[in-house]
Amino acid sequence: MEQELRDKYEVVIGLEVHAQLKTKSKIFAPDKNEFGQEPNSLTSPVTLGMPGVLPVLNKEAVNMGILTGLALNCEIPSRCKFDRKQYFYPDLPKGYQISQYDEPICVNGHLDINGKRIGITRAHLEEDAGKLVHAGADGLAGSSYSLVDLNRAGTPLLEIVSEPDMRSSDEARAYMEELRNIVRYIGVCDGNLEEGSMRCDANISIMPKGSKEFGTRAEIKNVNSFSALQRAIEYEIERQIEIVEDGGKVVQETRLWDDNSRETRSMRGKEDAHDYRYFPEPDLMPLEISREWVDRIKSEMPELPAAKRARYQSIGLSEYDANVIVEQMGLALFFDKVLELGANPKTAVNFIMGEIAAYLKEAKVEISETKLTPENLAELIALIEKGTISNNIGKQILIEDMITKGEKASAIVERKGLSQISDEGAIKELVQKVVDAHPNEVEAYKNGKTNLLGFFVGQVMKETKGRANPKTVNELLRSIIG
Ligand code: ADP
Ligand code: MG
Question: Which fold has domain 424-481?
C-alpha cells in the first residue's frame, strides 16, 4: 500500500493478553497444572463440570494475580469477585467459564514503553478452556471428527487488558515483549507464545488522522509469535483502510490470523458483553484482599526488567548491552550472580555476551544446561584481574574446559601450566632471542617500519603459547630495539 494512503489514517491498537499462571494445581480444582501430559489425565470431576461439584479458589493464583498487578502499576481493590461467562463450545464442559467481570483483581495500571505510557485498564483471573484436536493434527489425519483434551481446562489465566493507547505495530510489539519479560522475571508465567502459555488478542481500528473518534475495531486472534503479531497488525491496517477507501464500513468481529497465508479471516461476529449473560458466580464468595496481603506480596517483588536495565547501565553497560542481556533472562540471572560474587562487571559482561552467548547459540542450549557455574566464571575473572592469566587464555579455557567440562579455572591453569609469565628476567631472555633471530626486521623497524612491533610481540607470544604478559613484552621490546 502506498505510504501516502497509509498516512491519511491513524491506527489505534489495544491488546488483551492472556498469561497462563504457573501454579502447581488448577485455579478451582486439585488437578495438576501441567503441559504435555497424557490427554484427559488431569481431569477431576470439577474440571469436567460434573453436577454437584464446587470450585475452590487456589490462593497461589490470587497471589500471582496480585504480584502481576503490582508489577504493572495497578491498584488492587480491597474486594473482587468472580462471574460466570456463558457460552457453548465443546472444550468448555460446564457451558460457562468462571471469570471476573465488573470487579477484577487489578485495575488502573500502566507500563512505560520507550518513554510512552500505555494504560492498563484491568487484569482479571479466569479459567482456561480445554483444547480441541482437529482432523489432520496429532494422528487424526483424514478423520472426520475432532477430539477434546481437557487437561488445560481450569488452568489459571490472568487476562491483562490494555487501553487503546498504541499507535503502531512496533509499539504493540514492544508492549507485548515487555509484558512477557515482566511475567517471566516475576515468575508467574513462562511467557512461551509458541506453546500458548502467553496469548494475545489484538484489537485494531483506524481513523482519519486528526480525528478524535475511534473507528470500529476488529479483534485478531491466533498470533503465536511477536513477528506474527506485527504481521497481523500490518495486514489488518491495510485491510481496513481498503474497506474505508472503497466507501465501506469495518464491522466489529473476531478474525483469525493465518501465519502461513499471512492474512486474517473472519471467524465470528464479535459478541457484546450481554451475549455472555454474565452473572456473579454463586459458588464462590467475593474475595476480600487486605492491605497487609498486598504489602506482603509487594515486599517479595523481584527486580523488574526496567530496573535491571537501569542498574546495568549504572554499572557501565551500554544501553544496547543492557537491553540484550535483559531479554535473555537466563543470562541476566547468571550475570547477577557473577556480580554478587564481586566480579568486574565489564569483564563479566564481555564474556557473557561474547564467548558464552556465541557458544550457547551454536550449541542451542541454555546457560543452565551447561556445566558453567557463576562461581567458576567469577573465579576466572578474578584470575585475569590479578594478572595470573591473560584475557585470551581466559577465553580459551572458558570454552574448552569450563563450559563443557565444568572444571575450575584455577585447576585448568595449574594442570595446563597456563599462568602468565610476568617475570621480567624470563621475558627479557625471550625477547632477546626473538630479536636476535630476526635481524632484517629489526633493521626495517629502526628505519621507520614501527608497525613491525606487533610482529615481534606475536613471536614472543608464540614462544610462550600466549602466556607472556603483553604489557611487559611491549615495554621490553621498545627498550631493546627502539
Ligand atoms: P472484549 O472482551 O469485548 O474484547 P475488552 O474490554 O476486554 O472487550 O477489550 C477490549 C480491547 O479493545 C481493549 O484492549 C481496548 O483497549 C481495545 N479497544 C477498544 N476500543 C478500540 C478501538 N476502537 N480500536 C482499537 N482497540 C480498541
Ligand atoms: Mg476481546
Answer: Arc Repressor Mutant, subunit A (1.10.10)
